[in-house]
Amino acid sequence: MLKMVFFTFFICVVIIGSLVLLISMFFMENKSNEVGESPFECGFEPISYSRTPFSIQFFSITIIFLIFDLEIVIILPLLKSNQHYALINLLMTLIVLVLLGGLIVEWYDGSLDWSV
């Protein structure tokens, strides 16, 4: 009985949501103008193009930093645990070895070389 109530509620929500979406799309006015699609910069026209390219090295260093930061987030709670000490040591060793292997691959691949 409870499953039927949830199923009926879900179907009603989907139908009402779809109707609202379709009605709004039907009555929507399609006006496109240059002012509405331009970036807003304190009421002034933008001075330069806002989508400037950046070096891919910054992106790769950021990804590597995030991976090692997540490693710290995973390992620090494991250090507080006193139960299953051998299993925790094995798990921490495996995490560090996998990340160290990834860092070595990045190093030999040249992703960390800034002279390019």
UniProtKB/TrEMBL annotation:
Pfam families, per database record: Oxidored_q4
Record key words, sorted: Electron transport, Membrane, Mitochondrion, NAD, Respiratory chain, Translocase, Transmembrane, Transmembrane helix, Transport, Ubiquinone
GO CC annotations, alphabetized: mitochondrial membrane; NADH dehydrogenase complex
GO MF entry, a single one: NADH dehydrogenase (ubiquinone) activity
Originating species: Colpocephalum griffoneae
Protein name, as recorded: NADH-ubiquinone oxidoreductase chain 3
Record field: transmembrane: 7-28, 56-79, 86-108
Catalytic activity: a ubiquinone + NADH + 5 H(+)(in) = a ubiquinol + NAD(+) + 4 H(+)(out)
InterPro entries according to UniProt: NADH_UbQ/plastoQ_OxRdtase_su3 (IPR000440), NDAH_ubi_oxred_su3_sf (IPR038430)
Family named by the database record: Belongs to the complex I subunit 3 family.
EC number, as in UniProt: 7.1.1.2
